[in-house]
Predict the structure of YjjW family glycine radical enzyme activase.
Amino acid sequence: MARTAVVSRILPFSCVDGPGNRLVIFLQGCNFHCPGCHNPHTIGLCDHCGDCVADCPSGALTMAEGRVSWQGALCTHCDRCTDGCPRQASPKTRVMSVAEVLAELRRYGPLLSGVTVSGGEATTQLPFVVALFTLIKADPELVRLSCLLDSNGSLSLAGWQRLLPVLDGAMLDLKGWRDEVHRALTGYDRERVLASLQLLARCGKLAELRLLQVPGRTDFVDEGGRLDAGLCAFLQSLGPISIRLNGFRHHGVRGGALSWQEAGMEELQRLAKALIAKGFGPIALPALV
Ligand code: SF4
Ligand code: SF4
């Protein structure tokens, strides 16, 4: 099992990445190419081209022996390096071992309910996730922490079979219903996402389904505000599940998607109403949009 991963950042405490108070590990790298991504600098992996070094106004980046290194103490988090990176990467990632992440968990453990591995797309570094969750489950001090995954759902069924024995639950996104809409919004077809949702629901490990509403682009409801019949049948086949609605916002987005309309609360309430009318629930809405 891989004992290291490229980590974008660690958030010691979060109350929005699963139930309770959670330490969140954001892994670098994603296999989807969502034009509306709000964390585009987590998509690519740095190839140490060095282009960003001269752009740093604080001298926090240096090039040595063909590799870029970042000094956190000098960084002002101005984002110039990530904004200008041609690979949608960041020079501020670090390679962490499972042992280092376990040390962070022990440090904050008494205040935590669990750990969530997010991204990027966490399952692009699956061996690390499996190793981490396996060691948490085997550690008497950490075993009480629940192990959750935040994922785009693209993992293969064989991959899920490796992860399921040590996974307590996964939150999965669905960004479009019809295949052409899903592909336009993610760069990837929907089949694996649907198969992942079915597998997790069958195993009782689908912690949450997240529907992202992008005005004029997502196809969850028709013009009359009715839930798409195919989506409705698919959701019914999953059995009772928790659904969270997220609205597209411009925060963090780059490029053409900045011209897309943002989703307001009214639009999310319309989708919630369509879901509730078909008997789905509970439906969680953002506190503020
Ligand atoms: S972060 Fe981007 S620009 Fe900077 S060295 Fe890595 S690939 Fe090059
Ligand atoms: S975010 Fe930090 S490392 Fe990147 S350019 Fe700004 S100061 Fe330099």
The chain has a mean pLDDT of 95. Residues 46-52, 68, 81, 85, 87, 89-91 surround iron/sulfur cluster (ligand 1) (CB under 6 Å).
